[in-house]
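Let us practice reading a record.
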Amino acid sequence: MVSMEYVVQEAREDFVKAVQDSAGHVKVLEVEIQAVRVGPKNDMADVFVSFLWTPGDSITTVSAVQRQTWKRIKRTWQIQRAEPMGDGPSIFTW
């Protein structure tokens, strides 16, 4: 819930639902920001994040990339949306 301050107010309900749906079903092992593309006005950015996780109690690892849309609100960047990239499995998307 600490991350809530980094999610825009309008997206918080969907964010909480995504986290609750994944709770107990995945164990996140690694998160890495791979690229950031800032918009021309420096108030929006597409952030590409890779996740490595294990589903349930499995020892199999799964990786995928997610595109997050971030918006600058005053001096803070907040996430507006998170979408899976490609056809693979995804977590925490809304």
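A brief commentary: The first strand starts at residue 26 and ends at 38.
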